[in-house]
Structure formats: C-alpha cells, structure tokens
Amino acid sequence: xxxxxxxxxxxxxxxxxxxxxxxxxxxxxxxxxxxxxxxxxxxxxxxxxxxxxxxxxxxxxxxxxxxxxxxxxxxxxxxxxxxxxxxxxxxxxxxxxxxxxxxxxxxxxxxxxxxxxxxxxxxxxxxxxxxxxxxxxxxxxxxxxxxxxxxxxxxxxxxxxxxxxxxxxxxxxxxxxxxxxxxxxxxxxxxxxxxxxxxxxxxxxxxxxxxxxxxxxxxxxxxxxxxxxxxxxxxxxxxxxxxxxxxxxxxxxxxxxxxxxxxxxxxxxxxxxxx
Length: 275
What we know:
Layout: H1 5-19, E1 31-34, E2 40-42, H2 43-58, E3 63-67, E4 71-75, H3 78-84, E5 86-94, H4 96-101, E6 107-114, E7 121-128, E8 134-138, E9 143-145, E10 148-150, E11 162-166, H5 172-178, H6 180-183, E12 188-190, H7 195-203, E13 209-212, H8 219-231, E14 235-237, E15 256-259, H9 264-274
Parallel strand pairs: 3-5, 11-12, 11-13
Antiparallel strand pairs: 1-2, 3-4, 5-6, 6-7, 7-8, 8-9, 9-10, 13-15, 14-15
C-alpha cells in the first residue's frame, strides 16, 4: 500500500508537535551516540525520529526507512517492503545545531519513493519546525507552500540574486578563492543551516541559488527538497553539471548546485572554469 501526500504531511506535523516545545532548550542539546549519517545524535534528533517511526508503526505500513539517525530500517513486514520497493527517506531534524541553540531555521524532511534511485522519488514534504509552514510536492503536480503553488524566481545574474554557500571548512580560503569570480557576481550570500529548507527557499523564489560544495552532504538532506525544487521549475545538478540520480542509500553523499532556471547555464560555466 502506498502512502498519500496527506499522510506524509501528518507525519511532519507529528514531528512539529514533538519537537517545537523543545527548540532552544538545554534538554534538546543532550548528546548521545553518533548517528548513521555521521553526526552526533542529540536528544532533539531522537525525539523527531521517534515521532516518525511511531507514526509509521501505528499505520502498519511496510517499507524501508532511510533515516539520518538509525540508517536503514524496515518498518512492518520486511518481505512485503522489499517486494513493493517503497522507501521513505527522511531527515527527522535538518538543522539540529540551529534547533538546539534556538536559531529559527530547522526542518523535517520526508521523501517517498517506489524504486531504488533518486529519480524514483515521487512525493516530498519539508516542514519548517519553527513556523509550521509546509512545503510539499507530488511529481508532475507542481510544488506548494501550504496551500499556495510556488515557483522559482525569474532573476538572472545581472540582477540582485541571493544565494546560499556551503563549502568545506578544510582549506577554506583556498576553496573560497577558487570560486571567487562566481561569488562576486551575486548580490548577497546567506549561510542558514538547513539544507532541505534552503532548497525550498530556492523553490519559492526567496533565493536564486544554493551552492553546496561539501562532499559530505547526505541524501537524506536533499531527497525531499530536490523534488520540491524541480517541481517549482528549478534545477539541481552535480558540480560537473550532470544530472544527479544516485542510489537511495544512507551511504550516498554528494555536493550539488541548485538554482532557478535563469542561472543554470551561468553556474555550469563558472563551475567548469573552476574545474
């Protein structure tokens, strides 16, 4: 049995109900072991993931859950899940460091797929855990913020473009110098801290591009946001300008570029120059 978009939204709202009262508290920041995604798991991460697992178990669904904290876990009947190839790719709390410090920029990211590749993702939900605004999409049906359809901005590089930049801290100055000519063409730079939410900002036209050059960027961070972005008319591609369609796995990590359609050629040209 497949999961409809309303059920995915409800899962996100369940996470909001569990997490929102804890945002910015000392309890939220209590650390435990390192999660499957590689980051230290904090109490707030566990609360968010538990809310998702409980929502799924209550509905008696059969699927493979790919999650930031637990990695890969079958919910329900494993054989039925393997046969249906239904997968839920989630980041229970994207922007954990923001959330525990009370910085109002964090989200829950949920992507639904039937298959084994990123291109098999057909439904997506990203919910802002501070405002309760919800971005969502179904393949071929457009992208939405709450009840309003959204689309990317129509600004080109000659106009006042905003972008987010995420680059490795190792060799920071060298990395910055390599993309200096690109950075100088943008009007403003932002570094916000929730990958999924920033992809939705690009999708809704609040920002024109997201340049994430960190090779440690995880599938769970972008699985939902990339569908919302493309359904809003945006583009997402690798640093060498190619389409991204990797396996659906907790181990998949990659840098990427996301933008509106007006900036695609400019960014590909600049990044080719960098290479």
